[in-house]
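Deliverable D4.2, example record:
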Amino acid sequence: MNIRLKSNIAVSDNGFVFDSSTGDSYSVNPIGVEIIQLMKENKSSEEIIQSLEERYEVDAQTIDRDLYEFVQVLLSQQLAEKL
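Output generated by the structure prediction step:
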């Protein structure tokens, strides 16, 4: 999965996501914030999965599925783009 957040997306530590190009705002849970921060660090999907697997007691397959679904939401809201 080669995607990146769009450059106009701002994210606060408490889960507030703001798209400065549209004025739209969203909120995400703490794990969503963590995923977005890892994406902003240009981490690959594999690196994100590994980081979450080390931090939480969840298997890689579950994380992979949930990450895919989260990324699909980001893409549908035009907060991220495919490379």
